[in-house]
Write a structure and sequence with these properties.
Low-confidence stretches: none
Largest sheet: 7 strands, mixed
Number of strands: 11
Mean pLDDT: 95
Radius of gyration: 13 Å
Helix content: under 10%
Strand content: over 45%
């Protein structure tokens, strides 16, 4: 069982940066690949980025590639999403999720989810 709690969201101007954190409970955090998804108003939840168990591999949605960086600290049971050069279209609720297998961009593959944190980018 893994419980996830996101933090770090807020209001930022276009071009600014935010770092999201997702703290996980449980001793098996390092056995899970972690991911970030987001859901904008009126839209379906979409994949943002995922990172492998050790942190050695990651991949990103094309819409955030080069601007966002996912990382993890297994000693702290935390995964991060550094978001730079933010755009108004990045406005969404951001969720972290855990999956035993690495590489999934489909939300139904993920076993555990946080409650989400709101990111709002003003123009």
């Amino acid at each position: 069982q893994v419980q996830l709690v996101e933090s770090g969201g807020g209001l930022v101007q276009a071009g600014g940066s935010l770092r999201l954190s997702c703290a996980a409970s449980g001793r098996t955090f390092s056995r899970y690949a972690m991911a970030w998804f987001r859901q904008a108003p009126g839209k379906e939840r979409e994949f943002v980025a995922t990172i492998s168990w050790s942190g050695g591999r990651a991949y990103y949605a094309d819409s955030v590639k080069g601007r966002f960086t996912i990382s993890r600290d297994n000693a702290k049971n935390t995964v991060y999403l550094q978001m730079n050069s933010l755009k108004p279209e990045d406005t969404a609720v951001y969720y972290c999720a855990a999956d035993p297998a690495f590489g999934d961009s489909v939300q139904t593959s993920y076993d555990y989810w946080g409650q989400g944190t709101q990111v709002t980018v003003s123009s």
